[in-house]
């Protein structure tokens, strides 16, 4: 069978330009339900594609001007489908939901992409490459990952030098709201990853985030407390924490005034682009006698 000149020409075009059709299928309007994912989309040059973000997406400041789709765990299909322009895709981690809402969004024709929020480099690499494919720029995604890995390697060299002169401090990381009922981060969380990368020894061994009584926290006697409050900051956050958890006053961390505050948005949605820079401040707090 002989092929027509038109078919031959079309086939040649695809061979010469293999991304021609794929580029047309790339989503152009995005909704993002996860702070770290939003930050990575911006880092890859995709901010102009964002039409809505969730309440955990607070960085960079420019995304605060976008329409809100609510909290990542309590999304509504109406809030997402009513965005203008209407998104082609919704991205988020396995924390995104609830599931019936995601099914409604899929049924309405939107692509829903779920990413793993596990705090390790292989997961981050997979996330960045997937985002890179959706944005049509895997090369940029690969470079971002290589730069990220190099930043961590450089920081780990510094931590090893600091640990040679000073033992790793015992640390707990607490996530609170107005100081009350803080959750303590286990080793399998982004918070736990931060503690380890900064050179601390996480005194919490349970998986995920758990409520600890202040008596149990006092018994752990951390040398450093890292505290992230979702509503307060500065002296007000520390005052609320100590007022509602008075047993902490007996810990080394409080007695020696070694309470370090952390932006809670750093802990949402897996490893984000701001984490390497935040490690510097944590490590300085863990090893105050080491040179920067």
Describe this structure in words.
This protein has 292 residues and is α/β, with parallel strands linked by helices. Helix content is 43%, strand content 16%. Strands 6, 7, 8, 9, 10 and 11 form a six-stranded mixed beta sheet that branches. Helix 5 links the parallel strand 4 and strand 5. It starts with a helix and ends in a 6-residue tail after the last helix. The N terminus is likely disordered.
> How many helices does DSSP assign?
12
The residue fraction in helices comes out at 40-55%
For the termini, the CA-CA separation is 73 Å
Structural class: alpha/beta
Largest sheet: 6 strands, mixed
Give the radius of gyration.
Answer: 23 Å
- Please name the CATH topology of the largest domain: Rossmann fold
Tally of separate domains = 2
The CATH architecture assignment of the largest domain turns out to be 3-Layer(aba) Sandwich
CATH-level-4 superfamily name of the largest domain: Nitrogenase molybdenum iron protein domain
Which H/E pattern describes the elements? Answer: HHEHEEHEHEHHEEHEEHEHHEH
Unreliable residue runs: 1-23
Mean pLDDT across all amino acids: 91
Count the beta strands: 11
CATH classification class of the largest domain? Alpha Beta
Q: How much of the sequence is in beta strands?
A: 15-25%
What's this model, at a glance?
This protein has about 290 residues and is α/β, with parallel strands linked by helices. It contains twelve helices and eleven strands.
Show the helix and strand layout.
Layout: H1 5-16, H2 20-25, E1 30-33, H3 35-43, E2 50-53, E3 67-68, H4 77-81, E4 89-93, H5 99-107, E5 111-115, H6 121-135, H7 138-163, E6 170-177, E7 180-185, H8 190-198, E8 201-202, E9 209-211, H9 214-220, E10 224-229, H10 234-244, H11 252-255, E11 259-261, H12 275-286
Parallel strand pairs: 1-2, 1-4, 2-3, 4-5, 6-8, 6-10, 10-11
Antiparallel strand pairs: 6-7, 7-9
């Amino acid at each position: 069978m002989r092929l027509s000149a038109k078919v031959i020409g079309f086939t040649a075009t695809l061979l010469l330009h293999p991304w021609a059709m794929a580029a047309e299928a790339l989503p152009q309007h995005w909704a993002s339900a996860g702070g770290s994912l939003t930050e990575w989309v911006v880092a890859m040059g995709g901010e102009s594609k964002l039409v809505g973000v969730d309440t955990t997406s607070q960085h960079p400041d420019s995304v605060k001007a976008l329409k809100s789709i609510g909290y990542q765990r309590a999304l509504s299909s109406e809030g997402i489908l009513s965005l203008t322009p209407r998104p082609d895709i919704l991205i988020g981690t396995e924390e995104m939901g609830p599931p019936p809402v995601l099914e409604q969004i899929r049924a309405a024709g939107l692509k829903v992409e779920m990413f793993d929020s596990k705090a390790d480099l292989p997961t981050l690499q997979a996330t960045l490459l997937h985002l890179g494919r959706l944005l049509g720029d895997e090369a940029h995604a690969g470079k971002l990952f290589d730069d990220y890995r190099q930043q961590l390697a450089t920081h780990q060299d510094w931590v090893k030098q600091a640990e040679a002169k000073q033992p790793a401090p015992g640390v707990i990381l607490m996530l609170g709201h107005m100081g009350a009922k803080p959750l303590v981060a286990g080793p399998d969380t982004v918070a736990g990853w931060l503690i380890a990368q900064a050179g601390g020894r996480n005194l919490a061994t349970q998986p995920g985030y758990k409520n600890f009584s202040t008596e149990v926290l006092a018994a752990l006697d951390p040398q450093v407390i890292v505290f992230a409050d979702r509503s307060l900051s500065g002296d007000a956050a520390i005052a609320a924490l100590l007022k509602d958890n008075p047993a902490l006053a007996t810990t080394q961390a409080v007695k020696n005034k070694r309470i370090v505050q952390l932006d809670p948005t750093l802990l949402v949605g897996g490893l984000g682009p701001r984490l390497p820079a935040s490690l510097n401040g944590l490590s300085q707090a863990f090893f105050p006698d080491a040179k920067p």
